[in-house]
Each structure stands twice: as structure tokens, then as C-alpha cells.
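Hey L., structure's done. Input below.
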Amino acid sequence: IAKDFIDLLNVKMHNDKTLDPDLQFALPTEAQWEYAARGGVNSKGYYYSGSNVLSEVGEKGPDFSPVKSFMPNELGIYDMTGNACELTLDYWSSEGYITTTELNPINEVEDEFVVFRGGMLGAALETDFRLTSRLNIPKTSSPYFMAFRMVLVPIK
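Output:
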């Protein structure tokens, strides 16, 4: 559903000439998501996106919080910890992208599962919200705790 929405948005914005013809929206790769969540070049090495204290940047639930209810991270990005887990472009691999030296790798080896990041509503442990936490969810499911954000990338 997310990819279909993004495809429609790209077509609409290109047709309306409101988006540079050389750019398009896409799901972030797992590496792009983590780079943004960690605060990019401004990273202070926090456990969560913007703090070492979960309650400053997110919560475990039981209900969703309104957007910008918590502090942003070092890049000024809100809500990358908790609330909803976020879909990335990558298919699941137990190793993730840590086994490569590539700058922005993507696992395109098709699998039944895709990678979600960012913790999620109702997770039991604070460690489930850490920036290193990864979830594998079947690509055909649409759980209520799922979300996505987009990145703007050059058209290949």
C-alpha cells in the first residue's frame, strides 16, 4: 500500500509540475532510515532518536501520541522512536546491512518479510525502541502499528 501511494504521489506531483522532474519520493532504505534516526552528522550516539531517555522522544503506549509530542532528534526529525514502526525499502536479512562496506546498501533479495524500524506501540521492552532494533514483518500484512515516511531521491 505504501509503495502504491508513493507511486501515485510521484505521478501527481510530476504532472502538476510541483516536484523537480529529476527527483522522486521513495521509501527510505534501512541505512537511510537509521542515518536519519541517529541524527546524521550531528549524531550524539543516543540509544533512541534524540535522547538516551525514551520518555523524552517516544513512549510505549498504550495509545498513539500526536505528532511532535516529544523532542526531535539532532536533525530536527520527530517521532522516529515509538508510536509506529516504519517500513523501509529493504527485504529482511538477519544480518541487516552491517556486513557490507557499501554506503547505502539495499537488500533487494526478495523475501516474505520486509524491514521495519523505530519500535512500535505496545512493545514490551525499552530495548525494542533502540535505534538498533529491527523488525521483520510479512510484506503482505498491514498492522495498525505500521507507518512509513518518505525520502526524496534522484530518479535513476
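The chain has a mean pLDDT of 89. The longest strand covers residues 85-91.

-- N.
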